[in-house]
Amino acid sequence: MTLLAGTDIETTGLEPGDHRLVEFYAGLWDLRSRKRVFELNQRIDPQRSIGIEAQRVHKISLGDLVGCPTWDMVAPKAHAVLSRADMIVAHNGDGFDLPFLNYEFKRVGLPPIEKPTVDTMLQGRWATPIGKSPNLGELCFACDMPYDASKAHAADYDVGVMMDCFFAGLDWGFYTLPEIEELARAA
Q1: For the chain, what is the largest distance between any 2 Cα atoms, rounded to a whole number of angstroms?
Q2: Distance (Å, whole) CA 112 – CA 105
Q3: What integer pLDDT is reported at residue 185 of this predicted model?
Q4: Residues with Cβ < 8 Å from 34, sequence gap 6 or more?
Q5: What distance in Å separates the CA atoms of residue 159 and residue 161, rounded to the nearest whole number?
Q6: Could you tell me where the DSSP H helices lie in the chain?
Q7: Which domains are seen in the chain, by residue range?
Q8: In the predicted model, what is the mean pLDDT of residues 111-140?
Q9: Residue 129 pLDDT more than 70?
Q10: Which of 134, 145, 171, 174 could be a cystine partner for 127, CB 3.0 to 4.6 Å?
């Protein structure tokens, strides 16, 4: 079984090292059946303030995180889920999510996740008329997938619609998977 990890994070801001995670989601999909076989969805106490712009985007306040575990408690589980995958699919994963995650894994003493990736934003230029990198709503529109802006930026929602778009784009030949040998080496 080839497992794909669809992942997304929400953060207190954009700078690794200064900012922290407030939400982590990873789901594992079986490539053949395209069924989700496992998921981890966790809000996280960042132990610091949340930037106003970040809070405006994801709508998560410090009050929403009272009683949530800290990253050092969540990181081993998150690392284990991503480590099970043969490849990682993320929207802006190569440019933001995965570097941010790997910084945070390192910060708590875990090794980086080094898996083949498909970044649905960077590899999704086919989805926009002028060839720019699409936001998730534009990608959903191009794939004729429903997109509810009121649910956007909740990590589990974003990954669900992203994976629907990824599978559609894969069927249409717009996304390509890393070579099977590369997937086997990463396993």
Answers
A1: 46
A2: 6
A3: 54
A4: 167
A5: 6
A6: 52-58, 71-84, 98-107, 136-142, 155-171, 180-186
A7: 3-186 (3.30.420.10)
A8: 95
A9: yes
A10: 134
